[in-house]
Design a protein that fits this description.
The complex is a heterodimer of chains A (about 170) and B (about 575).
Chain A: E1 2-7, E2 13-14, E3 19-26, E4 39-46, E5 69-72, E6 77-78, E7 84-89, E8 97-106, E9 112-117, E10 128-131, H1 138-170
Parallel strand pairs in A: 2-10
Antiparallel strand pairs in A: 1-3, 3-7, 4-5, 4-6, 4-8, 8-9, 8-10
Chain B: H1 2-18, H2 22-26, H3 28-33, H4 38-55, H5 61-76, H6 109-127, H7 134-140, H8 145-173, H9 175-192, H10 199-210, H11 215-226, H12 229-262, H13 269-276, H14 278-294, H15 303-307, H16 317-325, H17 328-338, H18 341-358, H19 363-375, H20 377-420, H21 424-448, H22 457-479, H23 487-502, E1 509-510, E2 514-515, H24 528-533, H25 538-542, H26 547-555, H27 567-576
Antiparallel strand pairs in B: 1-2
Classes of the chains: A alpha+beta (about 170), B mainly alpha (about 575).
C-alpha cells in the first residue's frame, strides 16, 4: 500500500486557477517486490458523495467498466521507491465534485499492478472539493437577451404592422 | 352598304376586345363562381368596351348590359383584388391542391408545405438540442439522474397543454400567425438555456422550449387547409415525419457544433455547449420570420380577410368538446399514440446518453448513432401512413386497425430486446428496427384518426396529439428518472408497457366497418351516415348543420374494403333530394 498526500485550500480548489500539490511514495509498511513497477499514473477520482444519483460515475470492480476515476493528473511518471511530487493546475473541464487522488502503478506491459489513494477504502473520508468554472460570461448573457428581444419585437412589429395596414386599406 | 360596313367594323372591334374573356361572356353564372378572379379583368374590360361604344351607337346596349352584371359582382369582391388567379397545382372547388410537387416552393400550397414542416422541424431540434450535450451539461451544472429525468419529462410536458390550446388559436388567428407566435415566443427560452447555472433553471428552460412542439397542430391544420382530402393523409404524414427528423438531427448536429466551438474556436467545454445552443434558437427565429413573410393561411388569402366574409360555419365549442370527450375511441388512440410517438420522444431524450455511458462511445459518435433513431422518420412515418391506406383498400378499416396493432406491438417487442442486449452492433440493428415499427405505428394512427369523428375532428386530433406527448412524460417519469433501475432495465420495461398499452386497440369497433376481432354489424342501421349523424341532434339536423358530415360519410364508403354495398348509396341520394 502507498501513501498519497495532497494540499488544498479550505474554500475548494478553483478549476483553471488553483493547483493541486500531490506527493506519493511507497509505504514504509509495505513488504512488496517492486521490481516490476515501472510507471505511476495519478488520477483524480470521484468520492462517494459525488457518485450518489449519478450512475455515470459508478464504481465497478471490473476496471474496464469502472467510471470512478475520470481525469488524469499530469502525465505518467517513472516509478521510484522514494516517491515523487507534482504540482498540477486544475483544468477547466473538471466538474464540481468531491474528489480524492488515486495512484496506479503499471508494469512494463501497462497492466495495473498496485494502487494507493488519498481517501479511505470506502472513498468517504479525506475528500477535497474542486470548484468548477460556471461557463457563463456576461457577453453570452447579453447576446441571449438581445436575440430574445429581437425575436419578440419582430413578431409583435409584424403583427401590428399587418393589422394597421389592412385597417388602412379598408378605411 | 355604308351602315353594314360600319356594323362590321363595330363587331370587329367588339370581338377583339371580347376574345381574351370569351368564357366570362358565355356564362355569367360561372363568372360568379370564379368571382375572385374577375375584378381586374372586369374593370379592364370596361375600358375596352368604352372604345367600341364611342365608335358606334348600334352596339351600345349589349356591352352596357354585360358591364352591369360585372358591376354587381364587383361590389361583393372589393377585398379580393390582391388574390392571385392561377395556381401552379391542380385544385379542387375550395382551391385546395389535389397534387403535391415536392421540389417546388410555389405560392401558396407548396410554399406553405415547406414552411410548415421546416418550422416544426426547427422546434423539434430546439426541444432536443440539450439531450446529446447532457454529458457536458450534467458536469457543468452538477445534475443528478433525477434532475436529468425531470428535465427530460419537462421538455415534452409543456406541449401537452400547448397542443390543446393551439387548435383553438388556429381557428382564431389562422395557422400562419399561430405558428409564428409559438416559434418566436419560445425562441427566448432556447437562448436562455445558454445562461442556466442550476438544475432548476435547466428544467424551466427545457419546459418552456417544449411548448414549441405544438407546431404539430399548426402544421396539420395548415396542411388540411391547403390540400384536399385525397392527399391530406400523405401530406400530413410527410410533414409530421420530416419534422420529427428534427429530433434525430439535433442528436447528430449539436455535438458537431459543440466540437466546432471547442476545438477550432478554442472555447472551454463549459462555454462551448452554451454557445452551441444559439444555433437552434437562430434557426427557429429565421423559420418564424419566413412563415410571417412568405406564408399565407389559405389558398385564397389570409385568415383575417376571409373570416370577415363569414365563410366559416359556426359550431358550438361545448358541443364539439362534448362529442370529442365522450367518444371512447379518442382515449384509446390517445393512449396508443402516447406509446408510439411518445416513446419516440423518450428515446430521443435518453438514447444519446445511453450510448455514451453504456458503450463508452465518444460524445459525437453517441450523437450520430442515437440520431439514426429519429432520422428513420424520413421514410418510416410516411410509410406507416401508406401501409394504412394500402391495407384499407383491401380490408377497409379492419385492415387499418390490424396494421396499427401489428406494427406497434412488434415495435414494443424490439424495444424489450433493445434493453437486453449489451453488444454495440446488435443494439444498433435492433434500434433501427424498433424505430421503423414505432414510427410507422405513429403514421398509421393518423391514418385512422380522420374517421373517428367529423364534427369534433380538430379537438380529437389535438387530444390525441397531446396524448402522444403525455406518453413521453409518463415513460420518462416511470422508467428513466428513478435511480431504482438502470437505463437498460428501463428500456426493456418500457417495451413491455408498449405491448400492454396497444391491447385496447382490439376493442375499437365501428358498427359499419367492424373492429379487429369482430366483423361489421349486419344490422340495417350500421351505415356511415348513421355513425356520423349520431353527433348531431334532431334540431341541429333541421338547421342543416349536419350536411358536411353527410357528405363526408359518403366519401368514407371506401373503408368497407372490397365489399361496397350499392343499396345504401341510393338511400343517401334520397336524403340529398
Amino acid at each position: 500500500m502507498w501513501e498519497c498526500n495532497f494540499l488544498c485550500t479550505s474554500t475548494g480548489t478553483k478549476a483553471g486557477a488553483d493547483e493541486l500539490f500531490v506527493t506519493w511514495a511507497l509505504s514504509s509498511a509495505a513488504q512488496v517486490d517492486d521490481s516490476s513497477y515501472k510507471t505511476v499514473e495519478l488520477k483524480l477520482c470521484f468520492g462517494v458523495p459525488s457518485q450518489i444519483d449519478r450512475p455515470w460515475r459508478k464504481t465497478n470492480n471490473v476496471l474496464s467498466k469502472d467510471k470512478t476515476c475520470g481525469f488524469n493528473i499530469g502525465s505518467p511518471q517513472p516509478y521510484n521507491r522514494a516517491g515523487n511530487t507534482i504540482n498540477w493546475l486544475v483544468r477547466k473541464e473538471i466538474p464540481f465534485a468531491h474528489y480524492f487522488v488515486r495512484a496506479y502503478v503499471l508494469d512494463s506491459a501497462g497492466e495495473k499492478v498496485a494502487y494507493g489513494q488519498s481517501s479511505n477504502a470506502q472513498r468517504t473520508s479525506n475528500l477535497f472539493r474542486i470548484e468548477a468554472i460556471s461557463g457563463r460570461h456576461a457577453s453570452i448573457d447579453i447576446a441571449a437577451a438581445v436575440f430574445s428581444a429581437f425575436s419578440v419585437i419582430s413578431l409583435l412589429g409584424f403583427f401590428f404592422y399587418e393589422k394597421t395596414s389592412t385597417r388602412g386599406r379598408k378605411a | 352598304m355604308a351602315k353594314r360596313s360600319s356594323n362590321n367594323l363595330d363587331t370587329a372591334v367588339l370581338r377583339e376586345s371580347r376574345s381574351p374573356d370569351v368564357k366570362f361572356m358565355k356564362s355569367p353564372e360561372a363568372a360568379g363562381d370564379q368571382g375572385m378572379e374577375l375584378p381586374d379583368q372586369a374593370s379592364g374590360y370596361a375600358h375596352r368596351t368604352s372604345y367600341s361604344v364611342a365608335s358606334s351607337e348600334n352596339t351600345v346596349s349589349i356591352p352596357n348590359l354585360q358591364f352591369k352584371q360585372f358591376e354587381q359582382e364587383q361590389s361583393e369582391l372589393e377585398d379580393d383584388s390582391e388574390s392571385e388567379a392561377p395556381f401552379s397545382l391542380p385544385v379542387d372547388s375550395e382551391n385546395k391542391a389535389k397534387k403535391i410537387k415536392f421540389f417546388s416552393a410555389a405560392k401558396p400550397h407548396m410554399r406553405a408545405f415547406h414552411l410548415s414542416w421546416f418550422s416544426f422541424f426547427a422546434c423539434f431540434m430546439s426541444s432536443f438540442a440539450a439531450a446529446p450535450l447532457l454529458p457536458v451539461i450534467r458536469d457543468n451544472i452538477d445534475l443528478t439522474k433525477q434532475d436529468i429525468g425531470n428535465a427530460g419529462t419537462a421538455s415534452v410536458a409543456g406541449s401537452v397543454l400547448s397542443r390543446l390550446i393551439m387548435g383553438a388559436l388556429c381557428d382564431i388567428v389562422g395557422p400562419r400567425y399561430a405558428c409564428a407566435f409559438l416559434v418566436m415566443l419560445t425562441a427566448p427560452a432556447v437562448f436562455s438555456m445558454a445562461s442556466v447555472s442550476t438544475a432548476a433553471g435547466f428544467l424551466v428552460s427545457r419546459f418552456c422550449i417544449g411548448f414549441s412542439l405544438a407546431t404539430f397542430v399548426t402544421c396539420q391544420y395548415w396542411m388540411s387547409s391547403m390540400f384536399s382530402a385525397e392527399i391530406v393523409g400523405t401530406v400530413n404524414g410527410c410533414t409530421a415525419g420530416w419534422a420529427n427528423l428534427g429530433g434525430g438531427a439535433a442528436l447528430f448536429i449539436m455535438p458537431l457544433i459543440y466540437h466546432l466551438f471547442q476545438h477550432p474556436l478554442a472555447c472551454d467545454s463549459f462555454v462551448a455547449w452554451r454557445l452551441a445552443m444559439f444555433v437552434p434558437g437562430m434557426v427557429q427565429v429565421a423559420s418564424g420570420l419566413m412563415v410571417l413573410y412568405l406564408g399565407q393561411d389559405l389558398p385564397d388569402g389570409n385568415f383575417r380577410e376571409l373570416k370577415e366574409k363569414g365563410k366559416q360555419v359556426k359550431d358550438s365549442w361545448s358541443k364539439v368538446i362534448f362529442y370529442a370527450i365522450t367518444n371512447s375511441k379518442t382515449w384509446v388512440f390517445a393512449l396508443a399514440y402516447g406509446y408510439s410517438f411518445g416513446i419516440e420522444l423518450t428515446i430521443d431524450n435518453i438514447i444519446s446518453q445511453y450510448f455514451y455511458d453504456r458503450f463508452s462511445l465518444p460524445l459525437h459518435t453517441s450523437g450520430v448513432v442515437a440520431s439514426v433513431f429519429g432520422l428513420m422518420n424520413i421514410i418510416s412515418r410516411p410509410f406507416g401512413g401508406f401501409l394504412s391506406d394500402w391495407s384499407a383498400q383491401r380490408l377497409g378499416m379492419r385492415g387499418r386497425l390490424w396494421t396499427l396493432w401489428i406494427s406497434q406491438t412488434i415495435g414494443g417487442l424490439f424495444c424489450f430486446l433493445l434493453g437486453r442486449l449489451d453488444q454495440l452492433g446488435p443494439v444498433i440493428v435492433v434500434m433501427v428496427f424498433f424505430s421503423i415499427f414505432a414510427e410507422a405505428a405513429a403514421g398509421a394512427t393518423f391514418g385512422i384518426i380522420p374517421f373517428i369523428s367529423r364534427r369534433s375532428l380538430g379537438v380529437i386530433s389535438g387530444t390525441i396529439g397531446a396524448g402522444g406527448t403525455f406518453g413521453a412524460i409518463l415513460t420518462q417519469l416511470i422508467f428513466f428518472t428513478s435511480p431504482a433501475y438502470s437505463t437498460e432495465t428501463g428500456i426493456s420495461l418500457m417495451g413491455i408497457m408498449i405491448v400492454c398499452c396497444t391491447v385496447p386497440i382490439m376493442g375499437i369497433y365501428f358498427p359499419q366497418w367492424g373492429g379487429m376481432l369482430w366483423p361489421p354489424s349486419k344490422s340495417r342501421n350500421a351505415t356511415e351516415e348513421k355513425y356520423y349523424l349520431s353527433e348531431w341532434s334532431k334540431e341541429e339536423q333541421e338547421k342543416g348543420m349536419h350536411l358536411a358530415s353527410l357528405k363526408f360519410a359518403e366519401n368514407t364508403r371506401g373503408e368497407r374494403g372490397r365489399r361496397i354495398t350499392p343499396s345504401t348509396t341510393n338511400a343517401c341520394a334520397v336524403t340529398y333530394a
